[in-house]
């Protein structure tokens, strides 16, 4: 992957004129979002910058082991500190998202800030208004991989130390299902090779990411697979729903439903999988989509659930009840597929 010389030149200029940098990822953070915030934070701190990570909402518990995760500002819980850091920053870097709404409440402040903004992301259709400098590359596995390419192109490879390597590796691994999808480019493995050379303990990282589940999460997974999985054979699709009451019953913690959406795809013949999670009772449903081949779930989500994302992995929202969201899906999805 080639990072454009012009973009690199602009980035260098912005960095040269900054001292205090704020890093912001999308809401409902995942390994790629947190990995890129903490990886960049380490690298930029090593370069001598004052760097703050501000996330819209809680960091999922399986990512808290990463260096610096405990000092990230959670905007939803600490607005005043978040605002003060944002207002004193010289440079804002958006990581792993492409439209301002995706960073939740931080958007209100970020919109007003008259400082340079940079976006580093791998989602299609970036909003040209989001940032004046956009490193947007949809062919890379993850924002973490793209970040490693940029760091290499800046000539900063030695600043990417062991702790930063752990973070970037985690992002690549989470966004590719442990290198099972979105990972057919040899470049991804060249970057992974470099991260391994930094001395990361792969086994430890995989254990932290995927084998540190709470008993409640495992029971919630068992429960939904048993009772809340529906198959629509005519559409080669399957979906899972989780009510707010069920989240409470299993003492839901952020990140607990991460990966649930992949389970229906393990059913023979299923090409599309959807997860509906009622985050606020009767008010708000978060939706995750996964697909195989060229079924554009990002397009579907954009049209019917105010969302977006990648061709095969997208997300959306429904402001209303879980029943309404399910009804809308069942009524619109077969027609959408038929049109493709
Ligand atoms: P996940 O299902 O893992 O939450 O998200 C899958 C992909 O869709 C991610 O790349 C994520 O950034 C994107 N995505 C998730 N939710 C939304 C949303 O509400 N709006 C948009 N535009 N993208 C989303
Ligand atoms: Mn990502």
Short description:
The protein has 340 residues and is α/β, with parallel strands linked by helices. It has two domains: 5-210, inorganic pyrophosphatase (n-terminal core) (Alpha-Beta Complex); 215-339, Diaminopimelate Epimerase, Chain A, domain 1, CATH 3.10.310.30.
Helix and strand layout, with pairings?
Elements: H1 5-16, E1 20-25, H2 31-46, E2 50-55, E3 73-74, H3 79-87, E4 91-95, H4 106-112, E5 117-121, E6 133-136, H5 143-153, H6 162-175, H7 186-197, H8 202-210, H9 215-227, E7 229-232, E8 237-242, H10 244-249, E9 272-280, E10 284-291, H11 297-304, E11 308-309, E12 313-319, H12 322-339
Parallel strand pairs: 1-2, 1-4, 2-3, 4-5, 5-6, 8-9
Antiparallel strand pairs: 7-8, 9-10, 10-12, 11-12
Helix pairs in contact: 2-5, 2-6, 5-6, 6-7
The structure holds guanosine-5'-monophosphate and manganese (II) ion (MN).
Guanosine-5'-monophosphate is lined by residues 26, 28, 30, 102, 123, 261, 288, 307-310, 313-317.
Pfam families: DHH, DHHA1
Domain DDH: 21-172
InterPro entries: DDH_dom (IPR001667), DHH_sf (IPR038763), DHHA1_dom (IPR003156), Oligoribo/pAp-PDE_c-di-AMP_PDE (IPR051319)
Radius of gyration: 20 Å
- What is the class of the largest domain in the CATH system? Alpha Beta
The molecules bound to the chains, other than polymers, are: guanosine-5'-monophosphate, manganese (II) ion
CATH topology of the largest domain: inorganic pyrophosphatase (n-terminal core)
Can you offer a commentary on this structure?
InterPro entries: DDH_dom (IPR001667), DHH_sf (IPR038763), DHHA1_dom (IPR003156), Oligoribo/pAp-PDE_c-di-AMP_PDE (IPR051319). Residues 21-172 form the DDH domain. This protein has 340 residues and is α/β, with parallel strands linked by helices. It has 2 domains: 5-210, Alpha-Beta Complex (inorganic pyrophosphatase (n-terminal core)); 215-339, Roll (Diaminopimelate Epimerase, Chain A, domain 1). The chain has 12 helices and 12 strands. It has helices at residues 5-16, 31-46, 79-87, 106-112, 143-153, 162-175, 186-197, 202-210, 215-227, 244-249, 297-304, 322-339, and strands at residues 20-25, 50-55, 73-74, 91-95, 117-121, 133-136, 229-232, 237-242, 272-280, 284-291, 308-309, 313-319. The strands form 2 sheets. Strands 3-2-1-4-5-6 form a 6-stranded parallel sheet, sandwiched between helices. Strand 11 and strand 12 (313-319) form a beta hairpin. Helix 2 (31-46) packs parallel to helix 5 (143-153) and helix 6 packs antiparallel against helix 7. It is globular and about 55 Å long. It binds guanosine-5'-monophosphate and manganese (II) ion. Manganese (II) ion binds next to loops.
């Amino acid at each position: 992957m080639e990072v454009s010389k012009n973009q690199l030149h602009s980035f260098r200029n912005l960095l040269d004129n900054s001292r205090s940098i704020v890093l912001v990822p999308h809401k409902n953070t995942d390994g790629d979002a947190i990995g890129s915030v903490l990886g960049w934070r380490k690298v930029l701190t090593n370069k001598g910058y004052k760097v703050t990570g501000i996330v819209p909402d809680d960091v999922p518990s399986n990512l808290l082991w990463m260096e610096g995760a405990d000092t990230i500002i959670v905007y939803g819980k600490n607005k005043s500190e978040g605002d003060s850091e944002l207002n004193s920053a010289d440079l804002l870097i958006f990581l792993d998202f492409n439209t301002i709404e995706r960073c939740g409440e931080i958007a209100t402040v970020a919109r007003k800030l008259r400082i340079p903004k940079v976006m580093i992301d791998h989602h299609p259709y970036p909003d040209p208004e989001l940032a004046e400098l956009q490193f947007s590359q949809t062919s890379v596995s993850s924002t973490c991989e793209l970040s490693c390419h940029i760091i290499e192109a800046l000539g900063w490879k030695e600043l990417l130390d062991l702790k930063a390597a752990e973070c970037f590796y985690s992002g690549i691994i989470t966004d590719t299902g442990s290198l099972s999808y979105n990972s057919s480019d040899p470049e991804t493995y060249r970057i992974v090779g470099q991260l391994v050379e930094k001395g990361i303990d792969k086994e430890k990282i995989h254990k932290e990411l995927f084998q540190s589940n709470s008993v409640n999460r495992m029971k919630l997974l068992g429960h939904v697979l048993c009772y809340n999985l529906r198959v629509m054979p005519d559409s080669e699709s399957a979906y899972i729903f989780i009510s707010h009451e069920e989240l409470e019953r299993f003492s839901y913690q952020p990140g607990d439903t991460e990966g649930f959406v992949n389970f229906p795809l393990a059913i023979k013949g299923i090409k599309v999988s959807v997860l509906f999670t009622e985050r606020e009772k009767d008010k708000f449903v978060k939706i995750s989509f996964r697909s195989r081949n060229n079924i554009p779930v990002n397009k579907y989500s954009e049209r019917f659930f105010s969302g977006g994302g990648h061709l095969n992995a997208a997300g959306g929202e429904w402001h209303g009840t879980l029943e309404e969201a399910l009804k809308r899906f069942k009524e619109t999805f077969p027609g959408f597929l038929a049109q493709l």
